[in-house]
């Protein structure tokens, strides 16, 4: 399978099965999240885990082709890094995929899960579940021009089209009409009207067994499960049935869980000894970005949750929230906030 990166497991002290000795690149990933998983966020997440696969926010093909911003910018340290594309027109997707490969991305992921009105108006996102052949054509068009894996992130259904057969037909059509062998399944359906994107992440019930069944029926595919997973213990349970686990909100709001990913899920040494060190390791990046004119608050908003549940967490949050936006705010704001945590230890 093109997606798999074999990681040799040298730790013989743990009871690790042969199967576990081969970890797919996306055994653990942090979900694409618009406005959240920007390049600053990803840089920080990478400090916490060497092994997690990181995803960009969704970037539309229109933004890449016509936009004025540098939507594909990232730091080399962020690898392995997947670009999530929003779009449906095969030739345009192919054009963007080519650019993404040239820019050094490790994977391209097509968004077939976002239910927002804006996205539906552009005929992409979750509504594409109803157009499986178009998804396949888009994936194929991308695969024809790049060597990196092209993956699809989707839901288990849309609106009234929520049977297991519908999901299987969707996957089957994409698989048969492209070389796609790697899907991430958000284990709830989406309502295309009547619910906001936020409600669509909370109200439709989660159905993990349906994703497990999909893996049984399509054993040749690399399947990752997503939705409502809150701990690495839960992640390990899911990994008994599927190949990968993707976590979104919990990883963002409580990023300290990422510091345990390498050890718990990859049998690798942890990237950082503790979260205090992770923040200190971010200092050079902050200094570098500030010198380029980045506003401190754009970085610190992603680190507010790192001390969740430990003494000083509230003071840390408050100090950063109240000061990082001020004109001239610099690294001293973060140093001061960190003291508020360390002096309570
Ligand atoms: C703020 C926010 C923005 C999101 N943006 C995207 C996006 O750009 N593309 C996408 O496929 N999913 C997006 N999602 C959905 C997540 O990728 C994920 O599927 C969903 O949050 C369920 O996983 P979780 O329960 O672990 O958070 C977003 C979620 C949140 C909370």
UniProtKB/TrEMBL annotation:
Keyword presence, Oxidoreductase: yes
Q: What PROSITE patterns does the annotation carry?
A: UPF0034 (PS01136)
| MF terms (GO), sorted A to Z | flavin adenine dinucleotide binding; FMN binding; tRNA binding; tRNA-dihydrouridine20 synthase activity; tRNA-dihydrouridine20a synthase activity
User: In chain numbering, where does the site feature Interacts with tRNA fall?
Assistant: 111, 198, 201, 314, 317
UniProt enzyme class: oxidoreductase
Look up the EC number in the record and give it.
Answer: 1.3.1.91
- Can you tell me which residues bind FMN? 32-34, 84, 153, 186, 226-228, 248-249
Catalysed conversion reaction:
5,6-dihydrouridine(20) in tRNA + NADP(+) = uridine(20) in tRNA + NADPH + H(+); 5,6-dihydrouridine(20a) in tRNA + NADP(+) = uridine(20a) in tRNA + NADPH + H(+); 5,6-dihydrouridine(20a) in tRNA + NAD(+) = uridine(20a) in tRNA + NADH + H(+); 5,6-dihydrouridine(20) in tRNA + NAD(+) = uridine(20) in tRNA + NADH + H(+)
- Among the Pfam families in the record, one is Dus
Matches recorded under CDD domains? DUS_like_FMN (cd02801)
Q: Using the record's annotation, list all stretches that form the DUS-like FMN-binding domain.
A: 30-339
**Family, per entry:** Belongs to the Dus family. DusA subfamily.
Protein known as: tRNA-dihydrouridine(20/20a) synthase
């Amino acid at each position: 399978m093109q997606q798999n990166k074999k990681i040799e497991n040298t730790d013989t002290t743990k009871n690790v099965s042969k199967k576990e000795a081969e970890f797919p690149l996306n055994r653990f990933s942090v979900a694409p999240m618009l406005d959240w998983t920007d390049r600053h966020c990803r840089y920080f997440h990478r400090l916490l885990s060497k092994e997690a696969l990181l995803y960009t926010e969704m970037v539309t093909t229109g933004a890449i082709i016509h936009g004025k911003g540098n939507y594909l910018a990232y730091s080399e340290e962020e690898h392995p890094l997947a670009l999530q594309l929003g779009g449906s027109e095969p030739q345009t997707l192919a054009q963007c995929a080519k650019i993404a490969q040239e820019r050094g991305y490790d994977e391209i992921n097509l968004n077939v899960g976002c239910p927002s009105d804006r996205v539906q108006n552009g005929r992409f996102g979750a509504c594409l579940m109803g157009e499986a052949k178009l998804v396949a054509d888009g994936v194929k068009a991308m695969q024809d021009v790049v060597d990196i894996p092209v993956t699809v992130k989707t839901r288990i259904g849309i609106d009234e089209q929520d049977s297991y057969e519908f999901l299987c037909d969707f996957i089957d059509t994409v698989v048969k009409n492209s070389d796609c062998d790697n899907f991430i399944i958000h284990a709830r359906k989406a309502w295309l009207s009547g619910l906001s994107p936020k409600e669509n992440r909370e109200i439709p019930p989660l159905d993990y067994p349906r994703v497990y069944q999909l893996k049984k029926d399509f054993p040749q595919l690399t399947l990752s499960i997503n939705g409502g997973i809150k701990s690495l213990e839960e992640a390990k349970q899911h990994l008994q049935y599927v190949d990968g686990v993707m976590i979104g909100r919990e990883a963002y709001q409580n990023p300290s869980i990422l510091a345990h990913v390498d050890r718990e899920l990859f049998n690798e040494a942890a990237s950082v000894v503790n979260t205090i060190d992770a923040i200190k390791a971010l200092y050079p990046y902050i200094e570098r970005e500030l010198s380029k004119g980045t506003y401190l608050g754009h970085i610190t908003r992603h680190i507010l949750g790192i001390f969740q549940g430990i003494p000083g967490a509230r003071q840390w949050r408050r100090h950063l929230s109240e000061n990082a936006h001020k004109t001239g705010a610099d690294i001293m704001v973060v140093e001061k906030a960190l003291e508020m945590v360390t002096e309570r230890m």
